[in-house]
Amino acid sequence: MPLVNTKEMFKKAYEEGYAIGAFNVNNMEIIQGITEAAKKQQAPLILQVSAGARKYANQTYLLKLVEAAIIETDLPIALHLDHGDSFELCKDCIDGGFTSVMIDGSHLTFEENIALTKQVVEYAKPRNVTVEGELGRLAGVEDDINVNSEDASYTKPEEVEEFVKRTGVDSLAIAIGTSHGAFKFKGEAKLRFDILEEVSKRLPGFPIVLHGASSVIPEFVQIINEHGGDIAGAKGVPEDMLRKAATMAVCKINIDSDLRLAMTAKIREALDIDPKNFDPRKYLSPARDAIKDIVEHKIVEVLGCNGKA
Ligand code: G3H
Ligand code: 13P
Ligand code: ZN
């Protein structure tokens, strides 16, 4: 099976009330952990690459690893650019074989965001590549850019129809209170489901994307803190909220921090338990297994896309 774009995936997900997991990938072990879980659960997948991941691993290596995963799993997999910040970056990924791109103009004015997003759509559409746009701004850290919570802003539902109509995007990321990274809420977690409802009323049948959707699993936070790390106060989005969003118009849920935490916890633990271990295979194997377990858990208990491949 070749790489697919997100069109059919989202249509089915919307109609049947589940979401597809979009997991960030940076190296072989992460790709293997995610795709082994999806194969076991027969789940469609989006593997996403940020500008930082591209810089770290090299786009060609990541593309070839994802192609290997398709051979191993025979699953419908989309290769997606996460948080593209320029037309040139999106074009480079499209030309390089990505089947989906995000153009993130959420920091621009409404008109500038429309102009940039439209430019990407015009390049992507004839090449059968799907495009995700964003309206509203999440707090948190992306590619070393720190968005303070005072600079974050909820999506304005009254803007979404015009944005989608004028840009021609295939999906829309919205800001309803999630944020990037492992420190999402200081107090009680709160998502603006009223905004999601209003957006979906205005865009019937249209796929919505949720970024910043890691749950920050306490088990991994504890392991990290017990083995020399310090991420006290880390807090994510409760899984029942994500499950609810997945049954609504949300068709793509972005998860990166949970994989980072699982991997880091298992590596710290392995090295701490056996200080003589200097074989990367011996500390990366448990990390890869932990990624597999967490992704399986997300697929079955949060996204509901098991058996939907
Ligand atoms: O939203 C951002 C993702 O977690 C990717 O993070 O830009 O550090 O690769 P990164
Ligand atoms: P998390 O930091 O919550 O995993 O969000 C990831 C994300 O939105 C990638 O685009
Ligand atoms: Zn994101």
Mean pLDDT: 96
The structural class is alpha/beta
What's the CATH architecture? Alpha-Beta Barrel
Could you name the CATH class? Alpha Beta
Helix content: 40-55%
The neighbouring-strand order within the major sheet is: 1-2-3-4-5-8-9-10
Strand content: 15-25%
Radius of gyration: 18 Å
Mind summarizing the main beta sheet? Answer: 8 strands, parallel, barrel
> Secondary-structure element order, as H and E?
HEHEHHEHEHEEEHEHEHHEHH
Question: What is the assigned CATH homologous superfamily?
Answer: Aldolase class I
Spell out which ligands are present: glyceraldehyde-3-phosphate, 1,3-dihydroxyacetonephosphate, zinc ion
What is the 3D shape? globular
Q: What key phrases describe this protein's structure?
A:
alpha/beta; eight-stranded parallel β-barrel; TIM Barrel; binds zinc ion; binds glyceraldehyde-3-phosphate; two-stranded antiparallel ribbon
Folded structure, characterized:
There is one protein chain. Helix content is 49%, strand content 16%. It is built from twelve helices and ten strands. The protein has a single domain (7-303), classed as TIM Barrel (Alpha-Beta Barrel). It is an alpha/beta fold and 309 residues long. Strand 3 (77-84), helix 5 and strand 4 (100-103) form a beta-alpha-beta unit. The strands form two sheets. It has an eight-stranded parallel β-barrel with strand order 1-2-3-4-5-8-9-10, surrounded by ten helices. It has a two-stranded antiparallel ribbon with strand order 6-7. The N and C termini lie close together (12 Å). The radius of gyration is 18 Å and the shape is globular. Residues 24, 82-83, 180-181, 211-214, 254-258 line the site of 1,3-dihydroxyacetonephosphate (13P). 1,3-dihydroxyacetonephosphate binds at residues 24, 82-83, 180-181, 211-214, 254-258.
